[in-house]
Amino acid sequence: MSSIAAKRYAQALMDIGIEKGTYKNYADELAKVQELITTIPTFKATLFNVSFSIRSRRELLQNILERIGVSQEVRNFFSLLVERDRLQQLPIIMERFQDIVNEVEGRVRVCIYSTIPLDHGEVGELTESLQEALGKQVTVENKIDKEMIGGTIIKVDNILIDNSIRTHFARLAETLMKE
Predict the structure, then answer these.
(1) Do residues 93 and 6 lie in contact, with contact meaning Cβ atoms separated by under 8 Å?
(2) Which of 156, 154, 178, 173 is nearest to 164 (CA)?
(3) What pTM does this model have?
(4) Which fold has domain 3-102?
(5) What is the spatial distance between Cα 91 and Cα 31, in angstroms, rounded to a whole number?
(6) Residue 9 forms beta bridges with which residues?
(7) 3 state DSSP class of 126
(8) Where are the domains of the chain?
(9) How far apart (Å, rounded) are the C-alpha atoms in residues 69 and 58?
(10) Does domain 106-178 sit in CATH 3.40.50?
């Protein structure tokens, strides 16, 4: 499934959640179901096993979701995912759903790639600067990229700020080649 399709599923659930005022609950319920799927191997194996009928997989899922207190709207959403064979794309759908929640609530998720973990002071400074620049509440995730030589790469939505040593070297080489 493409990211576009995942966003459509996420947006459809979000539209219902906004209409009913329950979108925050939906995010929690999605996470709860994803945790069940990842932590109980037999449950996951059954849900993804195409030798079981769609009907039996949907019924199994519905029974478990009802027992753990998942709302009817989210149960219907999972029925749709099973029927359309999209359940394996749940992590992408959840990520898109969280992106939409962040957008609605004026937050943005920022991913900072570096060679070593940034300390709390560095993350704090970057967070503060990004909040000022973007005018939104910023959640920073620091990911370690061992392939990098040094520096940082900051990803905000579709914006990439590449301040890595490799990019600096590439720009320097390009400048030298022109002269």
Answers:
(1) yes
(2) 154
(3) 0.70
(4) Peroxidase; domain 1 (1.10.520)
(5) 9
(6) none
(7) helix
(8) 3-102, 106-178
(9) 16
(10) no
